[in-house]
Amino acid sequence: MRRTSRNFRIRGAAGRHGPALPSRRAVRAAAALAAGVLAVSLTACGGDDDGGDGGGDDKGKATGDTGTTLTLPKLDGQTLEVAAVWTGAEQKNFKQVLAEFEKRTGAKVTFVPAQDPIINFLGSKIAGGAPPDVAMLPQPGAIKQAVEKNWAKPLGPEATKELAKNYSQGWQDIGKVDGKQYGVYYKAANKSLIWYNAQVFENAGASEPKTWDELLNTAQMVYDSGVTPFSVGGADGWTLTDWFENIYLSQAGPEKYDQLAKHEIKWTDPSVKEALTTLAEVWGKKDYLAGGPDGALQTEFPASVTQTFTGGDQPKAGMVYEGDFVQVNIGETKAKVGTDAKVFPFPSVGDTPPVVSGGDAAVILEDSEAAQALVTFLASPDAAGIQAKLGGYLSPNKNVPESAYPNEVQQKMAKALIDAGDDFRFDMSDQAPQAFGGTPGKGEWKALQDFLKNPSDVAGTQAKLEADAAAAYGN
Fold first, then answer.
1. Average pLDDT of every residue of the chain
2. How many C-beta atoms surround the C-beta of residue 179 within 10 A?
3. Where are the alpha helices (DSSP H) in 110-179?
4. Fewest C-beta atoms under 10 Å: which of 97, 154, 343, 351?
5. With 80 as the cut, is the pLDDT of residue 175 above it?
6. At what angle do helices 381-388 and 369-378 cross, to 10 degrees?
7. pTM for the whole thing?
């Protein structure tokens, strides 16, 4: 799964970059709330597997957990394809949502597995005359690109109405291009979390750190106990951009963050040097990374999680950084969230802890009554409520009840996301043109993979990042 989360971040200006900057006070409030989320005692993930939501048997009309009734058209005999890069449990759970749509409307929906970068995948499908009807796009930059290529179709009045009813203005705005609504952010993520093996911490005498210096001290304690501190999924470049973005947001602040996201300041800026230098305090210690830099670069994201929670108190690593969606991967091990696997907010590097958000938006490529109905459904609390109870998922839909989530930690995370309103920051690499921020082997992904291999080359990494950014942004 991708970025899909990490101040929750959204863009800084109306239009392409969303609502205006939140105040530092608002950012601190959101960060404090997010921190409070993780102070609770976690319980094991779970949930009903039947995918139902109390919808009843009548096609077209059903009552969701909110007590409201969403009416959908009868679409017997119509077919739809939905493309997404989701795999494993995430794909399986989303298919339960699609099954409910089929039950209510009579339409037949096929899930099409896509590859990153999804824009390239969609381009090949469109060139072959077989585009999916709806695509789940993990980057606002990808939505903009799909509009510029005349692939994306605007949302109709029913979908727009459902979106406006259930989403804050900020989450609506990041699905817009030139003021027109194209995307429904069905899925959100808090990408400012570090998960840890509780037995490893207990053996090391370590506690949950709140600052970057405390994190380094904790890592040393874990190392001294005989366990490698960090697991890093460096084979997937997006995990590395998330590391950088959390450090940069906390250290440089939200204003600089927005400027760098829009390439209004260069990657050769001193603030980038400071963030990379800080990041090298972890990446530059080979013994702190499971398998060393070479091993990390061969480790894909799912394995980076599972190897942290297998092997009892002698796993390959004691900690792994990534978002709330890590729970899905932990569920594939014998570890239980809340007892074996615990979590703390990404520590503050500067004045406040970072809280960065990501997400996946439903975008229509083949306009039809069925496609519009599906996106309308995905904008409803009925659809989000189904996947919420299955775990490993957060919705920016403010009308999904907290009780829909399967455990206390996810309920608190969901509350933090909704209470933050428009005071968040969206994943920086996801805001960038895909050539820079979202393509394997290129741009930011490749530059940070090279930096993981050689963390002493701060200046060279900055120069490469700037050259690639300038080419991608056209400035």
1. 86
2. 8
3. 118-127, 140-148, 157-166, 169-173
4. 351
5. yes
6. 60
7. 0.74
Q: Where are the domains of the chain?
A: 65-190+362-425, 193-345
Angle at CA of residue 237, ends 262 and 410, nearest 5°: 85
Strand 134-137 and strand 79-84: pairing?
parallel
CA gap 40, 45 in Å, rounded: 14
Give the lowest-confidence range in 99-103, 378-382, 425-429.
Answer: 425-429
By the 8 A CB rule, do 130 and 139 touch? no
Reduce the DSSP state of residue 395 to 3 states and report it.
coil
Q: Do domains 65-190+362-425 and 193-345 have the same CATH topology?
A: yes
What are the tens digits of pLDDT across the range 189-207? 889 999 999 999 999 999 9
CATH code of the region 193-345: 3.40.190.10
Q: Which of 8, 45, 12, 14 shows the shortest CA–CA distance to 28?
A: 8
> What are the helix and strand counts (H, E) for the chain?
21, 14
**Bridge partners of residue 361, in order along the sequence:** 137, 185
State the residue for tokens 């210690």.
285
Contacts by residues 250-254 (CB-CB < 8 Å, ≥ 24 positions apart)? 250/346, 250/348, 250/349, 250/350, 250/351, 250/352, 250/353, 250/354, 251/275, 251/278, 251/349, 251/350, 252/350, 253/24, 253/350, 253/351, 254/7, 254/12, 254/21, 254/22, 254/24, 254/27, 254/425
Other C-beta atoms within 10 Å of 456: how many? 11
Residue 206 half-sphere exposure toward CB, CA atoms < 13 A: 29
Can you tell me the distance from the alpha carbon of 149 to that of 164, in angstroms, rounded to the nearest whole number?
A: 26
Q: What is the CATH number of domain 65-190+362-425?
A: 3.40.190.10
Residue 437: both structure tokens together: 């921020």
Query: What H or E segment, with its residue span, contains residue 467?
Result: helix 458-473
Secondary structure (DSSP) of 239-281:
HHHHHHHHHHHHHH-HHHHHHHHTTSS-TTSHHHHHHHHHHHH
